[in-house]
Amino acid sequence: MDEHYDCIVLGTGLKECIISGLLSVEGKKVLHMDRNGYYGGESASLNLNQIFEKFNMGKPTDNLGSSRDYNIDLIPKFILSSGLLVKMLLHTDVTRYLDFKVVDGSYVMPKGGKIQKVPATDTEAATSSLLGFFEKFSAKKFFVFVQEYDEAKPATHQGLNLKQVPMRHVFKKFGLNDESVDFIGHALALHLNDDYLEKPAHDTLVRIRLYAESLARYQKSPYIYPLYGLGELPQAFARLSAIYGGTYMLNKPIEKIAFEDGKVKVTSEGDTVTADFIVADPTYFPDKVKKSGRIIRSICLLSNPIPNSNNAESVQIIIPQKQVGRKSDIYIGEISSSHCVCAKNKYIAIVSTTVETDQPERELEPAYKLLGPIDTKFVSVTDFYEPISDGTSDKAFISTSYDATSHFETTCEDVMDIYKRITGKDLVLTTHPNILKQQEEAAAGHQQ
């Protein structure tokens, strides 16, 4: 195993697998290792027996059905159908390994505690019960402005320098009240907290446009989700890397990592390999990361769909921070047998948020109240880590932990940031020339 690679990747979480796939497609010689015997790392999908074992909860009860019917995500997130992850899947042609199903609905919890469907266009705003009579006119004008907004056409900017003017000023210009600002900022722009209000408006307008474009694709909701769970995603990118020469080794305990003579040396089971640089999740470099928060996730098994969700088989619900007196939002994602992740007539609802007190699970009470009866729940509190440096000096490029959001945009932004730090260039999300070449060769072979 005494060999040199362009890159060694440690950990098979989704971020590491995407980067491994991207670098392999570009012709880099990649070695990908994981101390675990399965793909996905923190973002794996487990069957029923595995999750009971992981949480030390004994054996599953018979009423939950067969273990093999379950693919339970440890870090659940939905995919915006026009978002960055879909662009990465298309860029690498990984879509051929995956099947997706649209999520039935997207809801928000306003004051009063009853969830309501999220309006995302001027037409929906006009009929939404979320908005009062006069507020509907303001919201409709705002959504028309967002839909017409084009960064390259100043005529669509309503006289505002949107790269400088804070978002709070734009909401005020359209006369939107606090309730409307809350659902637009959190359920459409998908901001984690209210910090965005003081930042330039351009980013928030782009985010709302993305939500509306994703919604327009399938009408029911802006989100899609892979059949058999998110564990399929890292495996698909691992397959891509292998096609382009990447080498994978699971069950490899990492005994030593050293930085010598401008190279990275990794020792596993007595063998040492070298590389020009290394990519890893935070667990491999505790001395190169800092803890900047904690995330609580509660995986709840239900026997009924979430009340007031129109009996949806899958749904996302956002509880904006202000509605429950918090600094960050609470997210609920529900999926079911329609996505091949649990037994028939069972539902998986996963609640997540950023921890703000010394009693994390009590912070989830507003979400639990929305779920109805819970059969079983698995609760975890994990530390959120981010790298201390950008990796350009020591050639150790480390990802951040997965945040509490119920979508993949922040995950993909981290991937793109790591890619730029490694290569010095932006990741351009059009189909890669090497992928196009392979597709042409495959089509020519098929015709013969």
TrEMBL record:
Q: Which residues cross the membrane?
A: none
Q: Which GO terms describe its biological process?
A: protein transport; small GTPase-mediated signal transduction; vesicle-mediated transport
Task: Tell me a Gene Ontology molecular-function term this record carries.
Answer: Rab GDP-dissociation inhibitor activity
| Gene Ontology CC, one term | cytoplasm
User: Which Gene3D superfamilies does this chain map to?
Assistant: FAD/NAD(P)-binding domain, Guanine Nucleotide Dissociation Inhibitor, domain 1, Guanine Nucleotide Dissociation Inhibitor, domain 2
Annotated family:
Belongs to the Rab GDI family.
Annotated PANTHER family? RAB GDP DISSOCIATION INHIBITOR, RAB GDP-DISSOCIATION INHIBITOR
This protein's name: Rab GDP dissociation inhibitor
Phylogenetic placement of the source organism: Eukaryota, Amoebozoa, Evosea, Eumycetozoa, Dictyostelia
